[in-house]
Amino acid sequence: MKIFISADIEGIAGISHWDEASLHKPDFSIFQEQMTAEVTAACEGALEAGATEIWVKDGHGTGRNLLASRLPPPTRLIRGWSGHPYQMLQELDETFSAVVMIGYHAAAGAAGNPLSHALTKGLAELRINGRHASEFLLNAYTAALLKVPVALVSGDQALCDDVVAVNPSIQTVPVKAGVGDSTVSLHPGEAVRRIREQIAHALRTDLTSCGLDLPEHFRVELRYKEHTDAYRNAFYPGAKLKDACIIVFETPDYFEVLRFLLFTA
Ligand SMILES: [Zn+2]
């Protein structure tokens, strides 16, 4: 059983401010430790359930956050950004049995996490077919392209509610809730314990219903914080400027959505 873990930081226990998510800021190291602890717990849970190979993508910011030596030895860690459109799922292919997402967070423009965003902080909103698209949704569609199920997502409560609304078979571990610009969080050690236990359980269940159905048509709408970004990115082939801050791109092919986001988000 080959497992792919995609790791972010804005949805880990306790994290509440961008200074805590930024490499080189003094507040970062505590949350670097917690991100590493949550991902390590996910690896341990997967091994307990019989995983023979685990690939981890460090999917936040620079892609250089996790403390590699803490991860169990069978793990392979993907650091930095290759430029491949799969981004947070770089190196995923059809040979994996399941995707696990750790530290994920609410979508841009959605409440439930002081650090809500999608892909970059320059986007005020990202919608697919009218719905707020979180990084969970974007990456779950990528996994669907490769027919790999999503076994479990951990992160903030708002994101977990969203996951269940999209597919109730996907297991979730909410570790904190956002209230305005604050968070109410589990104890860091309790978050780690729940992640390890839930993954060990999730990977022993039948995952056949944990995939997403890909829509036949994608209408992607990006609303930027700066009108200057919208103007420039509207020159992407097939994109259209809808108003000063919004561009729209339509395609039946999800890989084209990913290519579009690689260059415009
Ligand atoms: Zn992030």
UniProtKB/TrEMBL annotation:
Keywords per UniProt: Aminopeptidase, Hydrolase, Metal-binding, Protease, Zinc
Keyword Protease: yes
GO molecular function: aminopeptidase activity; metal ion binding
Binding site for Zn(2+) 2: D8, H60, H105, E135
Active-site residues annotated for this sequence: H117
CDD domains named in the record: DAP_dppA_3
Residues annotated to bind Zn(2+) 1: D8, E10
Gene3D superfamilies, sorted: Dipeptide transport protein
Highest taxon of source: Bacteria
Name this polypeptide is given: Peptidase M55 D-aminopeptidase
Organism: Thiomonas intermedia (strain K12) (Thiobacillus intermedius)
